[in-house]
Amino acid sequence: MTIAPQAIRKLGPGKLVVASHNEGKVREIAALLAGHGVEPVSAAALDLPEPEETGTTFIANAELKARQAADLSGLPALADDSGLCVEALGGEPGIFSARWAGPKRDFGDAMRLVEQKLEQAGEDAGRDAHFVCALALAWPDGHIESFEGRVDGVMVWPPRGTQGFGYDPVFQPIGHEQTFGEMEPEAKHAMSHRADAFAKLVAAVF
């Protein structure tokens, strides 16, 4: 006897909590949600607390954040856990990407730390890297759907551009001359790790 796979739950129109206190991330997610009949509201706007990210994978942390926001708000909630994985650093900073920026979320410091570690690793280690984005969509009844996207590139130094947020000024995606920090938002949205994950989410739940 074969068991049929569980059908993916569809998301109807209405309010959707974006379970993040990162303004840049909230803006990006809201832009990617445009035209899908949902009304994004940030966790910060609802005064929801930020949970401790205790997961060991991007998916686990995204699900943790989405579940808490859905439970506390009584609304469907979408959480993103994303990060930069540098090959020469064994995949670091990975799930600790935000934490490398310290309590003040100073990504200038975080970018300098990555560059220092790359210099210590030596030229032969290379500068290959990728961004990962895990998205988790949770409902108040505990149901959850998860998706993951990725974009590959190389690390550059010094930082270039003032668009985007986080590590964007030091990440140049493969096949492009500009860093994410130099790209207009529309260009980044068309090919980023977050866009990749969103394409999978949109195809599944809308």
Mean pLDDT: 93
| Rg of Cα set | 17 Å
> Describe the biggest sheet?
6 strands, mixed
Uncertain parts:
none
Q: What is the subunit organization of this protein?
A: single chain
Strand order of the largest sheet: 2-1-3-4-5-6
Helical content stands at 25-40%
> What is the number of helices?
5
Number of strands: 6
- 3D shape: globular
State the end-to-end CA separation.
Answer: 31 Å
Catalytic activity: ITP + H2O = IMP + diphosphate + H(+); XTP + H2O = XMP + diphosphate + H(+); dITP + H2O = dIMP + diphosphate + H(+)
Organism: Sphingomonas colocasiae
Cofactor: Mg(2+)
Protein name: dITP/XTP pyrophosphatase
Description:
Helix content is 29%, strand content 22%. The model has no long low-confidence stretch (mean pLDDT 93). It is an alpha/beta fold. Substrate binds at residues 20-25, 82, 165-168, 188, 193-194.
List the helices and strands and how they pair.
Blueprint: E1 14-18, H1 23-33, E2 38-42, H2 58-73, E3 77-86, H3 107-121, E4 128-138, E5 144-155, E6 171-173, H4 185-189, H5 193-205
Parallel strand pairs: 1-2, 1-3
Antiparallel strand pairs: 3-4, 4-5, 5-6
Binding site for Mg(2+): 52, 81
Subunit structure: Homodimer.
Cofactor: Mg(2+)
Task: Give a quick summary of the entry.
Substrate binds at residues 20-25, 82, 165-168, 188, 193-194. The chain is α/β, with parallel strands linked by helices and 206 residues long.
